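Minutes, methods subgroup
Present: GH (chair), OT, SY

1. OT presented the first of two proteins processed in the latest run. Sequence and structure tokens recorded below as shown on screen.
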Amino acid sequence: MIVVFGASTDIGQGLVARLRSEGLACREVSRSANDAVRADLRTGDGVAKVISGASIVVSCAHAEHTGTILRACPSDVQLVLVGSAWRYSRVPNARANLVREAEDLFLHSDHRGVMLHPSMIYGGNQENNLRRLLQVMRKIPFIPAPGGGRQIVCPIYVEDLVDCLVNAAKRSWDGKYILGVAGPSLTWRRMVEICAQSIGVRRPIISVPARPAVWILELLRGLGLKAVDPNVVRRFSENVDISTVRMREILSVTPRSFESGILAAIENWHRKGLTL
């Protein structure tokens, strides 16, 4: 039995569908999905019960819940955990610290398995980073790029991440592994250019200083106004360049190009009636 936490997320839904299509027994766990078994990772209520009888536990929930899962799982249960590439960031922020703490808990546990740290995920129905970027492109005459947009990014298409999780769940792990998973590397500027081309618009990319942008965002958030997390802009100062070599070798997944991925994402968003 494979137990999947976070079954109501884009990743969880895709994972459960794939596992069942391959004839694997799967128990969906969620606080919100009507057709899933209920358990609350925040309080721990019901977690041990839904894990009972499992041979593999996959968590698509936030990494902050790793401790709850570890405490509820017998040591012979194999784990597949989803973290985040924020773990590799040098920008001081609480999000990265939570993922690092989760990784440390896993590495010091008695469990076999793997924690995957995906880069920016796109293409799902709940994802809003690139969909929001496409919406902005239609409304403004240029795209501001903090620091010129020269930093390296490696966004991963949601179905490629699901492939990684499926193969990780089917693999027998002989210890504890940490693995970054990502799409092919490109500059942020090139990613934006491809996004613009994919919806048939032309927008100049204008370099703007990153520091003033951070100050403005912090001010807006301080005033209680909805704004991009300043740490996202701070991260424009560093490259998020995760090699896909180990991902291909260990999980047998070759990520698609961003050009093909964004077209597939747009098709999916149109099919679901989501605004672009």
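2. SY then presented the second protein from the same run.
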Amino acid sequence: MILRIGTRGSKLALRQSEWVKEKTEAEHPGLRVDLVRIKTTGDKILDAPLSRVGGKGLFVKEIEDALLEEKVDLAVHSMKDVPAALPDGLLLAAFPEREDPLDALISAEGWTLDQLPGRARVGTSSLRRGAQLLHIRPDLKLVPLRGNVDTRLRKLESGELHAIILAAAGLKRLGLSARITQVIPLQQILPAVGQGALGLEARRDDAETLALLRFLNHEPTELAVSAERAFLKELEGGCQVPIAGFASLNGTHLHLRGMVAALDGTKVIADDVTGEKGQSEAMGTHLARRLLDAGADEILSLAYGR
């Protein structure tokens, strides 16, 4: 039997898909797993911030189309790239154990976030990171940054930037942990919904593939990500507004913190909830409504031009 994984062609995406391939072939002797590279809209447009490109699923749509057309059997996504609502006929079949969910600062001089000098140039492609950075360090100068990890590191090394911020998970999966100057605490920058987690997407009616993938599912990761995604879905979140959410499981209790911020960081609305793990999605929805009632609706309306 052959299992075809649809994947982006970036070094990180391939590393993540190779990991799933190795684990699946080891678990199921006789199964062959092939990688099928697919170029997404987000891969094609590199000269503009994603928030200006607009739309959802910029890094997943073409792969999901290939799934629905049965050109591939499985997609391996970074969950922070996956919209809150999936296309009809598809589901997230498994969530492997989550890697580090936090953001990482890489500084040319070895400075931490607190040590960066005034007006330091910090590269980031994320409105979420930018808004939280400006909230705690309004003196910093944010510089839009696109491209793969190697491209971003080269811009730092060229002297154009004093520091860049990337997901710690991607750096660790690429064997670049030594480049991290500081893993930024949750109290300073809350991560993106699903950050650090992988999601394996398949066709809802493909029972054989769903059964093959079951061994890779990590329940604490599944519960945490489901709470975060319910939070995002209730907010109708897109890439035009800074939204962050992170959940963690402690025994049978799940803790979820969420945030919505103004683009310039002057207004940040955050709150958290704790509940039983079986209520993960309800917790996400409840927290989103609390933030909306606290003023997040005004921020979202302004961001989306409503």
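Chair's summary of item 2: The CA atoms of residues 85 and 265 lie 27 Å apart.
Next meeting: continue with the remaining queue.
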